[in-house]
Amino acid sequence: MLVGVSACSGGGSTQASGDDAKASDKPGASASPSPTKPAGPPMLLETITPQTGTTVGVAMPISVVFTNPVAQKARAAVEKHMKVSASQPVAGAWHWFGDKRADWRPKTYWPSGTKVKVEADMKGVSNGNGRYGVHSYTHTFKVGDDVRADVSVTGHTMKVTRNGATVRTLPINAGSAQYPTWNGTMAVIDKQEKVHMTSCSVGISCQKGSANYYDLTLPWDVHLTQSGTYVHYSTGDPQPGSGSARGSHGCVHLSLSNAKWFYGQVKQGDPVTITGSPRAKAPADNGYAAFNLDWDQWLAGSASGEGTTSTL
Predict the structure, then answer these.
(1) Nearest CA to 231 among 184, 280, 191?
(2) Average pLDDT estimate for 273-296
(3) Are 185 and 286 within 8 A, CB to CB?
């Protein structure tokens, strides 16, 4: 899970940091580096996402965040020690966002029903900056139904499909001309029944009474980007659609009943694809927007290149 500001926003930080699946165990005396390597402070993992035992959507990457920087010269060896296995062969690759976060994504979406295991055997592995791993970490998860949402900003609609069949098409409003919504595919980060959203937290307005000031707690919130994009209900736009055409501050608005319904349909990792906005695609590390990079771009950030999962 990524921790970000809780507000609709066209801007904000695009850097990711995680707080679920904590992997920073205290080093044990029996887990020292190999005697052939110099002793040093431990290399630890801050998070591994998805959490073990979860069921996720077809666009969910595996995201590993380290507590300390990993030097470029050490990344191929680190990738080699982060083994991805699956119940059916899947082609994919690691990609580094800066020097602390590495994500693995399949070349195309995960097949529904795939069981996945991530084994990060960091014992004795160097981060290239004087630190050595002292632990092994294992996470297992499953890919659930193929649930997708396709948002047309200009058409004011969101089509929801499950395993290829259309379930519903819902009226929506997206961002205004001043605060357009990100384009592209964003895997759901998480969802909450209520989120406190403020314009000040995302740098829109901190002045009460201004046209763009808001301080609201809103229901049925599906989180798309760390910079503050949600699909949710807004009291300021209770009946969204082409008839009202009220722009948001970057979020996708649904009616109250539709927001509650959509909230019940989606899970972490389900892809929400937005088209027709004047804004660029969300950066791939602004949450879990890995599929906003084409495959060549993804491989350009990998130290070891494309590989196929081991078989569970």
Answers:
(1) 191
(2) 98
(3) no
